[in-house]
Design a protein that fits this description.
The chain is globular and about 50 Å long. By secondary structure, the protein is mainly beta.
Length: 71
């Protein structure tokens, strides 16, 4: 199982199975990418890959700000 953002594999991924059902929740650290919308692709262990277009976009962080300034 894997996840791609704009064709690039995620840095790290976690998978949680929902109790009592055959469903999973996936969390991940996305790879760096230039600003813009990307296709997100889930590659299951079995079966066909699934892609979603227009559901995730990278944004440009202002050059004069830092994460510390945001809090």
């Amino acid at each position: 199982t894997g996840i791609l953002f704009g064709g690039v594999p995620v840095i790290q991924m976690w998978q949680e199975k929902w109790s009592g059902v055959n469903s999973y929740t996936y969390s991940c650290i996305v790879p760096p990418h230039p600003p813009g919308s990307v296709v997100v692709t889930l590659i299951p262990e079995y079966g066909e890959p699934y892609s979603a277009e227009g559901n995730y976009a990278y944004v440009e962080w202002p050059a004069n700000d830092t994460l510390d300034d945001a809090y």
